[in-house]
Amino acid sequence: MLKYSIKRLLESLPVLLIVVIISFTLMKVAPGGPFDSEKTAPIEVQKEIAKMYKLDQPVYIQFKDYLFNVLKGDLGVSYKYPGRTVNELIAKGLPITFELGFYALSYAILIGVLFGVIAAIRKNTMLDYIPMSTAMIGVCVPSLLMGPSLVLVFSLWMGWLPVSGWDTWQHKLLPSLTLGSAYAAYIARITRGGMLDVLVQDYIRTARAKGVAEKWIIIRHSLKGALTTVVAYLGPAVAGLLTGSFVVEKIFQIPGMGRYYIQAAFNRDYTMIMGMTIMFSFLLITFNYIADVLAIAMNPKLSFENKK
Amino acid sequence: MSQTEFIEKGNSLWQDAFYRLKKNKLAMFGFVFVSIVILLAIITPLIAPYSYQEQNLILGAVPPNGDHWFGTDTLGRDLLTRVLYGGRISLMVGFVATFVSLVIGVLWGTIAGFLGGKVDSVMMRIVDIMFSLPFILFVIMLMVVFGRNIFLIFIAIGAVEWLPMARIVRSQVVNLRKQEFVEACFSLGFSKRRIILKHLILNVLGQIIIYTSLTIPSVMLFESFLSYLGLGIQPPMSSWGSLISSGVETMEEFPWLFLFPGVVFTLTLFSLNFLGDGLRDALDPRASKD
Amino acid sequence: MFQNIRYLLSLSIMGAFLFTCSPSKSTKSKLGSKSSQKIFKFGNGSEPTDLDPHVVTGVPEHHIISALFEGLVAPHPKTLKPMPAAAESWTISDDLMVYTFKINPQAKWSNGDAVTAHDFEFSWKRILTPTLASEYAYMLYPVKGAEAYNKNKTQDFSTVLAKAVDAQTFKVTLKAPTPYFLSMLFHYSSWPVHPKTIAKFGAEKKRGTQWTRPANIVTNGPFTLKTWELNKVLTVVKNPNYWNASIVKLDGVNFYPVDDNGAEERMFRNGELHVTSTLPVHKIPFYQKKKDPRLNISPYLGTYYYRFNVKKAPLNNPKVREALNLSIDRSLITKHVTKAGEMPSFTFTPPNTAGYTSRYQISKNNLEKAKALLAEAGFKDGVNFPKLTLLYNTQDNHKKIAEAIQQMWKKNLGIDIELNNQEWKVYLSSVKKGDFDIARAGWIGDYSDPNTFLDMFVTDGGNNQTGWSNKDYDSLIAKAAMTQSTSDRLALFNNAEEILLTELPIMPIYTYTSKYLKSESVVGWESNILDVHPFQHIDLK
Questions:
Q1: Which phi and psi angles does C530 have, rounded to 5°?
Q2: What is the set of domains in chain B, with CATH numbers?
Q3: Do C429 and A167 touch (CB under 8 A)?
Q4: Over the stretch C267-276, which tens digit does the pLDDT of each residue have?
Q5: Quick one: DSSP state of residue C7?
Q6: Can you tell me the ipTM of this complex?
Q7: pLDDT above 90 covers what percent of chain C?
Q8: A196 → closest Cβ in B132, B140, B289
Q9: Per residue in C68-107, pLDDT tens?
Q10: Of C21, C206, C230, the CB nearest to A92
Q11: Quick check: B234 contacting C, CB < 8 Å?
Q12: What CA–CA distance (Å, rounded) separates B71 from B254?
């Protein structure tokens, strides 16, 4: 297990490097630069700007400089917001996105597991169809539809909740719901499937035959097996959450990383984009790693698969 | 025939699966609804009451009435027509992009799983890397570097969605490699290539069908997301995604502009998802849960 | 037992629901809350990139900087005439070339230091410093020697004739009589920065230091910077050291960087903003129908137009360009697409710009002539006309206008145009490179004078970007820059604009309006063509 962990860690480093290379290349190839503006400055001024940001250097030198800085932990200075370093902007936006993702994920796991368990136990009855259909709403109604609808009903008609922002729990409720509902549905589906798988296993039948109460069967014996699959899903779920937060942050005007990211892409803020790409990738790799390790810890059988 | 007769008859895996699928009411509803939608999309040019781009600026946005069953948008264009044409685009994107991802993913996963060893490691590492790329940036850059046209959208989305497919296929192939009948094939002397193509892929087909039917709605959702960012279909063409995106802005004043495409889109996604779920329940060999 | 779990669960869900049912004891203070502070809540459209007046270029930054800093002169809120600000008086020489400003002896920085003429000389030197690469340095080019210094042709600042004669006197010599020079000084590019603070952070020659942070910044305007929460809110509070602090009635201003105008309008309705930066167009008829007094629409100094790439056939043929111009119905667009009271444009310079209205105008809706011209160019009824692409930056309004025009050309001339939208930066780059056939554009005047519109289209002008060149036009514009008499100048502009409007490298569509929502509790806010509303005159009732 330890060997596996270390091996995975080491394998992640070249992945990060490749991420840096690919995103750097894409940024350089894309048309439109960070300093294009409607009021065209005189050529001399444009030259000075290019020089200031070292954009007049050959590409491989720009890349080399950048890489060295990244290794030192310095992601550079934003082009769009002079005086703000990328690290600073990430430090401002990331905790908020984290919080949003955390609430969304908690909601998703809570509701998802609950619905999934109920549906599995009462398979093919109304208690199967209703929770699964309700959860399905989260998947089939896109967040750019669900978010504004919720705002319409709860903020503008009822006046119960604020329209946008991220201060009090009232601000945080709707965005978390909007972001989490798709994942609640996936988790419900996975839990249900996992539960169903486990419930037909021999050892469950044995437990029932021995007269163990139904509730213990569910809680002690089946749930753990079902949750293993959920944990395995967490890696991609977190990836989806980080990117799904883009739309939700825009709808609710939440000052998180997602909003910065979109703005940076449109502004051609090279350093921001690359810095955030690296950050995102680092996070994704970390989460995937943790989820994988957790899954193996919960079910050692899985590790054989990876022995290949 | 009655249930007992059916069981006694003994059936292949596929017939078993089909029977299970038919029993699933939600899945059948999904199947019927999707079929209707696809049919409507195909015959749209014949049945659409207006042109999708003809404007009536003075009319502006009016609620549903006798002339315009779904009402009109702010430029006076008939909404029913635009929803019909939007369906063509959305479904086209869904199917074609999924098909692209299917081809890439299946080939990739099968080759990796079958060849194993170093090749497998390298190929799957590439998949891992791509998983770590925040894909929205990737797609934005592609759209921006190569311009916006519908074929590029197919390829861009397909190029992102093939990753999970490759993983699934590869793990299935790895599993199946260990099964006995593959060894039997080896001992019978079939050429390697025939083995890959015929036996492995057939056995993986179940997983592919399931995954495909779940990818299509996910692709359509992704397209609506791109439209929201202004990277989707060029006007005056529109997909359901772009109709909803612009409809959301006028949600309070002209609710029909987002309700109709929204409901149609949501119902279609529901149907596809139910169908996919039903297929999964039906085709999954572990599903002796009855 | 499972029953019990379900029971408990439903109880708790109901409980949670009831809890949220109570109207939120809103912690976000709404308007009219008990607070005794007069805080003006301002929808500012986007997060400011910086607060350095010599570096920024946008309107949101302008709003904040105008609360924090003050230049030599300021516009009167209604008439836009130059009023004393940091300068208490000035004299202009007879030949209109030398301006002598007397700095107000009461003018102070927020830390108590006196504002002096040396501060202005330092600041003008800074914005003209080549390595600072200020994109608005050109606003000071009328000053003799400024352009050469900024383009690094000389490193000697004494050649730039903007001098502090003594602590109270600032003398500026121009290279040509520039009648609108004072109104150019309304723009923050000529405003002062605090030399000691700049020096402390080594920012004389470079941008991006920390001197604009709340803890460091020193300003001379009616407010000082209190907090700056990225993408959330920027707050300023009344500056007790401001020389005119007695007329400032607000205690502070909060700038909210809301970039989604749908969200901004909802915030306004929810009572979270006093004023918005703009308004979604489709909502305007609803406010108009209710005769809602909070809706504000007034003319704005800008023109919405399309550029033609005159280097690409068939747009190189002026007959084609004129045909395109004559075959669109501008009032249909302003009445039914943009719907915000815009005026259709038949000239490039907006009518009544500092008293100037172009005598020559594009003829309205002359479909017959348009068809005839197209036929003369060899494309009768649009046959064989190449499929050109119309480029615009991604935004709903631009899309709707483009779609409408696409239809008009198809219906009236029989030609097919393809639409292409790119996001802002890509679009700017494409236009700059000439990578377009027809491109949407908008030009807001930098100051209130026709020159800011007409000097765009001189040969190789940085903002021309159409490839059009006309020697007569160039010489008329150059001559106008040297002319003293107003009537002579306007005559020259008339001639120049006539050339522009007969050759038509562009297609003007409408004159901008500023449209926004303003709460009825806002007092002292006057509409004007530059859309400037100095915060020192605002009050909340």
A1: -95, -5
A2: 13-59+66-287 (1.10.3720.10)
A3: no
A4: 898 888 999 9
A5: H
A6: 0.75
A7: 63
A8: B289
A9: 999 999 998 888 889 999 999 999 998 889 999 999 999 9
A10: C230
A11: yes
A12: 9
